[in-house]
Each structure stands twice: as C-alpha cells, then as structure tokens.
Amino acid sequence: MAPAAAESRRSDPVINYGVRRLLALVPVALGVATLTFAIIHLVPGDPVVAMLGETAAPADIVGMRHQLGLDRPLLEQYAAYLGGLAVGDLGESISYRKPVSRLIAERFPATIELAAAGMLVAVLLAFPLGIIAGSNPGGAGDLGAMGFAIVGISIPHIYLGPLLMILFSLDLRWLPLTGAGVSSIWSCPRSRLAPRLPRSLRVCCARA
Questions:
Q1: Which residue of 9, 23, 90, 205 could cross-link 100, Cys pair, CB 3.0 to 4.6 Å?
Q2: Structural domains counted in the chain
C-alpha cells in the first residue's frame, strides 16, 4: 500500500499541472477569439462589398448583410461568433465561398506532412552537426556548427524561403519551383522537399 500511495502522490503534481495548463487555455482562446473579432470589425472595408463587388446593387448588399448577420448589434454578432467557434463553425470564406472548416480539413493533411517532413530533415541535419560540435568543443567543427546555427536562426523564413527557391529551383534546377509533382518516383520527393527546406534548416539550427 505504501509504494502505491507514494506513486499516487508523485503523480498528483503532474496531473494538477496538466489540468492547470488546460484551464489556462480557456482565457487564452477567448482572448484570441475576441481580438480576432475586434480586428475584423476595425479593419477598413466592407466584406459584403468585397464579396459582391463595387458594382453590386444596394438591395443585394443589404440582403447579403442580413444573410451574414452583419446588420445585427455588435454584441449579438460576438455571441454568435463565439457560439459558432464552440461547435466548430468558422463561417464561410469570402474568397472560396466554402466553409472555413472544410478548407482547413482539406489542407490539414498537407500541413501535417509538411511539418513532419521538415522535422525529419532537420533532425537528420542537426544530429551530425551536434556530434561534430560535441566531439571537439571549441574546435573548428564546434565553431562551424555554432556559426551555421546562428546564421540559420537569424535569417527570417520570409527571406530564406525565396533565397532557397532561387538557388535550388532556378539556378541549380534540382527541385521544382512549385507543386507536388507525382510524375515519377524521383519527382515526387523532390517536389515535396522544396517547401520543407526553410523550416528544416530553421529547426536544425535551433537544435544544432
């Protein structure tokens, strides 16, 4: 009984910590939702006009505003917005005219593939760099790995991505510029490697 009680006491802090972290997500999620709602209403422009165009008839604009609930009081819109989020209703995309949840679901597998492949490439690069740096602290390998990590972390993705696209796709022509080609066994991994390089190098530098 004593070992079981001791094990239970040791696991209690872990469970309590997990519960506290989960409860802390509630105000964070509410704050993010509120901030998003406020930004949408503070940004200049009318989403109805963006959907229907500048030449839309006033009657069509009024009808679309009523259909979207934009003619209701702001607090009522906020309550409807939170209610939709609670049940997974993220509204309809203005650009694609499809439910946002469906668009996310369609792109979620590619996002998971992108993150997993990027992490795999990063680990494959980071482990050798870490071994080289740790085998001779202060030596050329250590300084080289540290310099590579500092440079990689310092360069923003928005700048590193186009540079890698220019190097591997336009100059060296090793990888396709866009798309996920499946025309051959070689073209498929090549097309999937290109968009993962910036994230892979970033994660690799963080772990090197």
A1: 90
A2: 2
